[in-house]
Amino acid sequence: MNGHAHPVAVRSYLAVFAALLVLTVVTVAVASLDLTAGMTVTVAIVIATFKATLVALFFMHLKGEKPMVFWPLGLTGVLLMALFAFVLWTEGDHLLGTRFGDAFGTTRTAPAAGAEGGGDH
Q1: For each of the chain's 121 residues, which pLDDT tens digit applies?
Q2: Do 87 and 49 share a structural domain?
């Protein structure tokens, strides 16, 4: 073993673990509230982002890193958001009932999920 061992702050690990447990309980409690689906998802994503930040800062030891480490991390986050935006841009129109037109000008609405035929009539 070399003489460059990092000091382990057990108290801070336990505090972060306790915070993660509390935030998990809060996430479950928010899911049981009578909120709209969009609001529930928004609150859950905010809590999950905070939990991921705690894990990255303390368990992945990013808290004491140089600022140069955060540039690739930020770029990764921006590219991830761009990927999600691209998927929603290309596939999100199916969520709103896209109207398809054919060569003769007639239009039809996309069937709802699970509404397609296929059974014996």
Answers
A1: 556 666 777 898 999 999 999 999 999 999 899 988 889 888 999 999 999 999 988 888 788 778 787 888 889 989 999 998 888 787 766 666 666 666 676 666 666 555 555 555 4
A2: no
Question: Is residue 1 situated within a structural domain?
Answer: no
Cα-Cα end-to-end distance for the chain: 74
Q: Which domain holds residue 56?
A: 9-65
CA distance linking residue 13 with residue 57, whole number of Å: 11
- Quickly list DSSP for 76-94: HHHHHHHHHHHHHHHHGGG
Cβ-based neighbour number of residue 59 at 10 Å: 13
CA angle 66, 60, 20 (to 5 degrees): 125
Place of tokens 């996309």: 110
Residues in Cβ contact with 63 at an 8 Å cutoff, skipping those fewer than 6 apart: 57
